[in-house]
Amino acid sequence: MPEFGDVVDSNFIYSSGQIDGRIYGESAISYSGNPTVYHVGDVVHLPYQSGERSTIEAIGLAWQAFATGGVPE
Amino acid sequence: MAKKSGSSFGSFNRAEKFDLRPVVPIETEFSKGSVPDSLYASNRESAWSRWRRGYEIATASIYDNSYDYPFIYAVPVPRGTPTTTGNPPTIPGVFKGFPTTNKEFGMHWAGIRVAGSLRFDNVVDSGGVRASIASVTEDDDFWYVQLTGSWSVANPLPPPLYVAIPGVPGGLKAINGEILEDRVINPGDPPITRDTIDPTTQKRYGYVQAVLEDTNPFTGVLKLRKAGSVEATPDRALVTPATRPPNVDRFFITGTRYCCSCQDFNRRDYAFMTSLSTVSDSLAKAFPRTNLSALKPGRYEIMTLSGVVDNSAMTSATVDRDMEIVSPSPAYNVPPTVTPTTSTVPGAARDNPGVFRDFGGMYLRSTPDPSVPGSKAEGMPSYADYAASGNVITSLTDVWTPLLDEVRYCKHIYAMKYEEGVFPPEPSDFPVGIGSMAAWEQKLVKDTEKQQASAKAAALQRGSLSMMDVPPYNCQAPMMMPMMQKLFNIPSTFVKMDGFTMIDKNGKKYIPASGELPSV
Fold it and tell me: For residue B147, what is the enclosing H or E element?
């Protein structure tokens, strides 16, 4: 069961060959894991609970404030 | 950008000799060649061209495209809003850079808002009833989805589905134009995917994706467009248009939202300010200007800091600028009556000298084919622009809406859709005037790889792409802020630097506004 904010579905997972083949400029650097956390095709799990302010509610408040000249905190 | 020869005072009085030989066809705003050059225009505007080039960009750079900047944006709340505990409202997404030699600072920046950012199981009516899909009716072109709940004039759909604005009939429907997907089975459930299997039937659930055309806030009915809809079938295939309506009792989420800062997506043409300092460039010493013939009435925006115009491309991670939209008449302010972020300048044209030459237009898909309900191939585009009668503007139809899917996708978004695994079928409008398809494709592959390598080398080695040239530091640039508003679908004043939490290549989070940096 995914946790809050987890990526549920990702169609873009680099293979080991692709990760090895990726180039970050000319510098020798080290990295681990999947180079990107979110990518196109991802679906995020955001089940806001009662008492929390959901993203859709926050965007609604923003538009409502904008319509009346409100500003963000 | 038109070049103004002899712009220095040293050649101010230079006499121009007329010579017939160098006479060339007139260059128009978006085309090169004689006017009208329908052949060139059809190639340039072809959906097929950008579809094919998008594929090439994706495949040419899949191994070495290191310009992915994942982020989590914390949405600020209006001043005076009570604080809440628990998980804050966030928008996850990715900025993706496409190296180019045809853009300021050598990079087109595209953005993605991850699917599932907005969930309808968080939408409730006045009685606390969650807005699931109660029923669906349909006609040839649309599905009409009734949301569960008690909706009326006294209790309309909540923001952002509907925001009442005094004196504005219809109010503001900020969600119109979003892609909706019926992917939440029960409140609080993770969104289903193409692979999710229903345990009771042992078959895949499947889902439907469609663009929200309109919202009736007083009846709770959403109008979803059949044309362009996508269905994930029990066979895990994606088919378009969808063969069935959204499933009753499920909850909608928003689909992946794309936006790009490139000229093609924005329908804009930029002045290259970086070119001005290049001594060898022919634009050196020339102030960018706009041809009189290209001036059009309309809206444009200006970035300001403390009321002073500030068009610099990069900002400190702690500075927030304002975006002011300039309109030729109060009737076309966006949205009407809003202050102070909209101002009226009579006769305003779509030209912000030194920044933009054209504000852009809205891409309109053609009307559906009545013989095939819900079916419409993406064909030649048309653009709504403005209309005037007797030197009075009677309508402005530019892109200042949160609408996204109406805007034609550019090759960068096609590239991202390819990587997402939802690359659309080949458009039917194959460009004309191409002799050998095979030869053309081989040249395209070769040229794309060469151009990508060249553009990347220019950005990294000669141009010295710096930390300040990449998101979120450049997010308040004049070319980025309009894209940010459309991508997040929130007012630009709510796009603040301190809201960004970035994720580096190792998956480590860092907050630029706090002075944190990615790991090396």
Answer: strand B142-147
List pLDDT tens digits, range B338-364: 444 556 665 555 556 555 555 555 555
Q: Give the mutation candidate from B122, B321, B470, B492 for the A interface (greatest A CB count, under 10 A).
A: B122
- Of residues B125 and B339, more confidence is placed in B125
Q: What is the pLDDT of residue B24?
A: 52
Judging contacts by C-beta atoms under 8 Å, the chain B residues touching residue A20 are none
CA angle B366, B371, B375 (to 5 degrees): 50
Distance from CA of A30 to the nearest CA of B (A): 8
Task: Tell whether the model's pLDDT for residue B389 goes beyond 80.
Answer: no
Residue in chain A nearest B171 by alpha carbon: A67
Distance CA B148, CA B157 (A): 11
pTM for the full model?
0.81
DSSP code at position B8: S
User: Confidence class of residue B130 from pLDDT cuts 50, 70 and 90?
Assistant: very high
What residue in A sits closest to B83 (Cα-Cα)?
Answer: A53
Chain A: residue nearest B507 by CA?
A: A37
pLDDT digits 0-9 by tens, B251-283: 999 998 888 888 777 766 665 555 554 445 554
User: How does DSSP assign A12-71, residue by residue?
Assistant: ----HHHHHH---TTS-----S-S-SS-TT-EE---PPTTSPPHHHHHHHHHHHHHTT--
Mean pLDDT in residue range B447-471: 77
| C-alpha span between A18 and A10 (Å, rounded) | 16
CB pairs A-B closer than 8 Å = 228
Nearest chain A residue to B111 by CA distance is: A40
Q: Answer positive or negative: Cα dihedral of B423, B424, B430, B435.
A: positive
Contacts of A60 in chain B (CB under 8 A): 158-161, 163, 174
Q: Do B340 and A69 touch (CB under 8 A)?
A: yes
3-state secondary structure (DSSP) of residue B479: coil
- Tell whether B464 lies on the interface with A, counting CB pairs under 8 A: no
Contact call for residues B117 and B91 (beta carbons, < 8 A): yes
Length of chain B: 520
